[in-house]
Amino acid sequence: MTTILSDAALDALLAQDVPYGDLTTDSLGIAARPARMSFAARGAMVLAGTEEAARLVEKAGGSILRVEASGTAMGAGAVFLEVDGPAGSLHRAWKVAQTLVEYASGIATRARRIVEAAPGVTVACTRKNFPGSKDLSVKAVQAGGAVMHRLGLSETLLVFPEHRAFLAEPPETWIAGLRRKAPEKKIVVEVGTVEEAVAFAQAGADVIQLEKLPPDAARAVIEATRGLTPPPAVAPAGGVTEANAAAYAAAGCRLLITSAPFFGQPADVKVVLGPL
């Protein structure tokens, strides 16, 4: 993968952490000393953001010796980034690069676990990433083998109960209206019960998004709608994790929608920085 964060964005990250120089390194008089820095996985993890981390080092004045690509699975102790350069440059990039990789790799690792728990099923992550972190979060999701459910409100039709509260027409009417206005888009409707799911499928929804319904409810919806032409995609959402992904797959779901990769511990990265 290439970097998804621009040089301007990376410059801003460095400026946040080192706005007026590195007081400790500069005061010790070691900034010009030749140095080397390595990043290694403390435990098994899927990498994400390594290209951005390497570019941060370059922006700070270091040189890249080796970097593993985002999406690479690493075992405990494996080194994935090695750099050298002046000690001042490496100290300047150190924590920003480490923290970026840790958070992004945490997302990628959790996404990969869900993907591996349900082979052959598409795992799609929602837009519920931390505000301001979308670019890197999307890259991390993809590095883990998942896809994005929707990048934002501008490119998908997803009708929530909060939308339907304003509609007086029957679902057949507003679903047909959506199809006229956006004929290239799938119409997704979120529901909270099996009965709602069947009703909106019969009204013409392309995708039925099940909000926090268990696998047995998903199976019931699939069985009740498989005779429709075409049958809708039935996609569990809300509460989908690596612990229940296999159960949803066994119920017949071929699309799982989840926010779980965005929430959890960062990956743990060990950094060694010292003189050459």
Mean pLDDT comes to: 97
Tell me the series of helices and strands, N- to C-terminal. HHEEHEEEHEHEEHHEHEHEHEE
Cα gyration radius (Å) = 23 Å
Low-confidence stretches: none
Distance between the termini: 30 Å
Estimate the strand proportion.
15-25%
- Broad CATH class of the largest domain: Alpha Beta
CATH topology of the largest domain: TIM Barrel
Task: Tell me about this structure.
Residues 22-105 form the Quinolinate phosphoribosyl transferase N-terminal domain. Belongs to the NadC/ModD family. InterPro entries: Aldolase_TIM, ModD, NadC/ModD, Nicotinate_pribotase-like_C, Quinolinate_PRibosylTase_N_sf, Quinolinate_PRibosylTrfase_C, Quinolinate_PRibosylTrfase_N. It is a single chain. The chain is α/β, with parallel strands linked by helices. The protein has two domains: 7-111 and 264-275, Aldehyde Oxidoreductase, domain 3 (Alpha-Beta Complex); 115-262, TIM Barrel. It is 40% helix and 22% strand. The protein contains ten helices and 13 strands. A four-stranded antiparallel sheet has the order 3-5-1-13, with helices on one face. A four-stranded parallel sheet has the order 8-9-10-11. A three-stranded parallel sheet has the order 7-6-12. Helix 5 (134-143) links the parallel strand 6 and strand 7 (147-148). The two termini are 30 Å apart. The model has no long low-confidence stretch (mean pLDDT 97).
